[in-house]
Amino acid sequence: MAELTVTEVKRIVETLLFAADEPLNVAALMNVFDSEYDDPRSFRELLVAALDELEMDCEARGIELVQVASGFRLQVDKAHSEWVHKLWRRNPPRYSRALLETLAMIAYQQPITRGEIDEVRGVTTSGNILRRLQERGWVRELGRKQVPGLPILYGTTRAFLDYFNLRSIGDLPPLVDGESLRVKEERVEPPRIVANES
Amino acid sequence: MAELTVTEVKRIVETLLFAADEPLNVAALMNVFDSEYDDPRSFRELLVAALDELEMDCEARGIELVQVASGFRLQVDKAHSEWVHKLWRRNPPRYSRALLETLAMIAYQQPITRGEIDEVRGVTTSGNILRRLQERGWVRELGRKQVPGLPILYGTTRAFLDYFNLRSIGDLPPLVDGESLRVKEERVEPPRIVANES
Amino acid sequence: MPDELANQTTEELALNRDNSMPYQARIGDKSIEELPNDLHVPPDAMIVMLESFEGPLDLLLYLIRKQNLNILEIRLADIADQYMQYIEMMSTLRLQLAGEYLVIAATLMVIKSRALLPQLESDEEEEANPEAELRRRLQEYERLKNASERLDALPRVDREVHVVHAPLAESYAPEVQPEIELKELMVAFADVIQRSKLYQQHRITRTTISVRERMTDIIGKLEKSEEQVPFDALFDVREGKVSLIASLLAILELMRSSLVRVTQQRPFAPIFVGLAEATSVG
Prior knowledge:
The complex is a heterotrimer, with two copies of chain A (about 200 residues) and one copy of chain C (about 280 residues). With about 200 residues, chain A is an alpha+beta fold. Chain A has helices at about 5-20, 25-30, 40-60, 80-90, 95-110, 115-120, 125-135, 160-165, and strands spanning about 65-70, 70-75, 110-115, 140-145, 150-155.
């Protein structure tokens, strides 16, 4: 196979970090390249060299490569954050699609585990998103599901209902089929328990 | 006040584009800098020069500066998208044929009424589809056609163009033959639109 | 063609027509051209196939393409019978048949009867020509179909286009929190559900929500009280029968998942409900 150079790896890593909603650790990055190397150890060295170069490149720009608990992340540096604040004063920030989807899953399907959310969303939901939702006071841990691994069950809070002006979760607009949202209807049918084996 | 150089403006603009959750146009960017200049015209030139430089800088990286309907945005370039896919094995959203046909009809023939859509599709378009397109922010009501029944006229939005990576309706892929979806042009006079700003 | 089909059952008929459908039969890497007549096609599969048509024009277009002809070449009278066979199949399978299918059927019958009377062609200039009109509609629909396929093929956000993003460092992040609207939440949920093939329609219903909500409520109540809660305190008779059933089902479901424990000292004694040991919440 064609060997990737440090510069090529650096560029790819940069786009990965920009496109991911989440910090990426070395293992996650290695996974992306797994068809590109025979020897993991030497590729790992290449990757680390690429990250070093990327860090130096960033110094000339308004961004910085930092390492947080869950991996590497590119972020706007301090000097330039002031400018972003100016922008946000006029165009307020918005939540990512991933966060909205996670919140929607919890609201509609609670109590729900992270694994169940992932199964429907088709991607791994980051712990960061769940933490942000908890910090915002919209989501809380309800307990643990009695299945192997004892995963945490999540649900929404009173503050969530207050924010959206709802009296109860039952006031959420129901979704009648996969395609469309129907206006709230008053149909009363005996409730049916849905098996929620995972 | 201290004058900003093109390079400084370029760096700031880059971080603004990174942090913003939507495309930014020149006006929005000018707003961020409004305390920095006395002469809007010359600053605008500086800004455009900075955008040009940024575009060139990107060529050496895996990202590109593109202009879509509502402004500029930075996105992963085509060559590097493959890598992002490897990272992100998510199922992209898929849309039903009925929804795509309705959307195509509106995009190519706007302003258009539901009756006109149905006529070409040969079936009644469900209200769910039109509502879903509106909820998604791709379609909006433009007004009412001045014919009996005053049917609603639909058109596409900037968000639609942004999503499909287009700058304007003129960038839609050309039709296989003819300029219109309608084979026999029956419209004698241009449709009159009643203003109904949303 | 119509005569040779006349004696076949609708199922056999469908099999014969099935070869160029998107649902091809394959054994290994060999696609099956000829199907044995006695092979049973499950009605479900047939329904999926028939429902894949977007409408009568789509069905007609499919019939025309199957003959490797284009809209301008084909004699619509020739495919009228095939069209009618499909309509019959749909009603045999009790598919809901949109009125539009019947309108086109009637038009095709008119076209066919005119084709049987060639001497009337001199009139065609004056009266409306239903064949020309239908041909025009088919052309329009074909254009639309092409246009929507091209639209679908455009690179788009979340699929080919990845917008780059970099957050601010947490320490510089502003106190201002993003605002969202309930509508955005609904759209996000609709998207997620649509994307997921794992979920069946019936799993997403209003009633499902109410039982799940009840489960959350009950856990909340149990958390608030230090001790176990009397079983009947978890019910509010003013809520009506349906809600009471929902509460009961919620408790049963919580028991099943071992999230709550229900205890009774002796027969007919009060029943108490408490959180299970492992569910202590931090």
